[in-house]
Amino acid sequence: MTMLDTLEARLREVARAGGIPGASIAVSVGGELSEAATGVLNLDTRVEATTGSLFQVGSTTKVWTAALVMQLVEEGHVELDQPVRDHLPGFALADESAAAAVTVRHLLTHSGGFEGDLFTDTGRGDDSLARYVGLLRDARQIDAPGRSFSYCNSGFNVLGHLVATLRGGTWEQAMRDHLLTPLGVRQAALMPEEAILFRAAAGHTPSQETGNPSVVRPWNLPRSNGPAGASLFAAPGELVRFGQMILNGGLAADGTRVLSQESVTAMTGPQFPLPFFPGLGGHWGLGPAVLDWGAPIYWHNGSTLGQAASWWIVPGHDVVVAFTANGGDMAGLVSDLAEPLITELTGLTPPAPIRPPATPVRADLAPYPGRYVTPTMVVDVAESDGLLEITSTPAGLLATLSATPRTARFVPYGGHGFIAVDAVQGRHRFVSFTVEDGRATHVFEGRSAPRA
Description:
By secondary structure, the chain is α+β, with helices and mostly antiparallel strands. It has helices at residues 7-17, 61-74, 96-101, 104-108, 128-135, 153-167, 171-183, 192-195, 236-247, 261-268, 330-346, 396-401, and strands at 22-29, 32-39, 55-56, 188-189, 204-206, 213-215, 233-234, 272-273, 283-284, 289-292, 296-303, 308-314, 319-325, 370-374, 377-384, 387-394, 406-414, 417-420, 430-436, 439-444, 448-450. The strands form 4 sheets. Strands 2-1-13-12-11-10-9-8 form an 8-stranded antiparallel β-sheet, with helices on both faces. It has an 8-stranded antiparallel β-sheet with strand order 14-15-16-17-18-19-20-21. A 3-stranded antiparallel β-sheet has the order 3-7-4.
């Protein structure tokens, strides 16, 4: 008996073990779809989760936004290596020279070098994206454009504004006209007032009073962050539908041409090298990451306010997997369900989780202590008994969910990388530093945080 045969039971088992209120998974093998759901969408209302329920799919939306950009490239409206200002003359950053140099390709590959986790609410009007992009004139530069990778939500909001501007409408309308409708997507929404027409999941995070999962309020992120992941609410089967289009070289299930083969190849090819970091592959494409399991896998995760999604496309095996969840140990769905399932279906295996070395690597710790800051996290690094003690304190939007700092001890892992001594839910955190002239300038944990 295969995992597909017991998909619902396995999903239920992993969700219960991880304290996940509700979850749903969709798997396509050779075009044959299998789906399962478990739990509830909302612990207050106890509405049952179904395979057609809508979850916030978070940053997996970025690949959809990237596809909208590639359609504009195909039509000759956009060139990837031209400055963004050629298309959006008003685009500005705190660093004028950087703003003039940032290209569309930089934004698609998270290499624009400016602050990424800016979740400013600019209202619910159709001008919300334009107003958001206008506020970026104060966004700090972390690194020179094209020099390094740092995950950048704000860059994808700029891309959404680019799409809306060149299409002469809103990002949401472009999504409907150029992706959702041609693909035949039905179990999806782009606005809260649309999502209410479906079974829609609420996010959950631990209560600061009791530690028990509680419903997150507000329900969703601002509309101004839609293109980066705030405003696509979908069943995982619709993520699979999009993934099948990628596998089919840009063709929808009914034969409609959504993207050219050239665009698909560009999106899924290695475009920008990544720093070593567990869970990330060797490169980022134009939208998705390209994981290395001995063969390439196209991947993207997503997380919003107490909700998450994860999405894999396995070329050469005609496999697409997507899951959604609304709280608890959502990473456990990756390690205990999705990854083993992909291995069973394809024979490919993920890289082994990294662990602290049995004999710690000797390192001079003097370059690293200090404070590093992003809009959503303050990271304090101190030397303690030959180790690095790192305290991460949520700021901005993340502080509204939990203001509790977390402290962990790290040992050297090689180069300027450090791994946590203790595992949390079976996984060891990993951080790396950028060092120039004997002093760390940035700490990297998916995002690059500059020294304050």
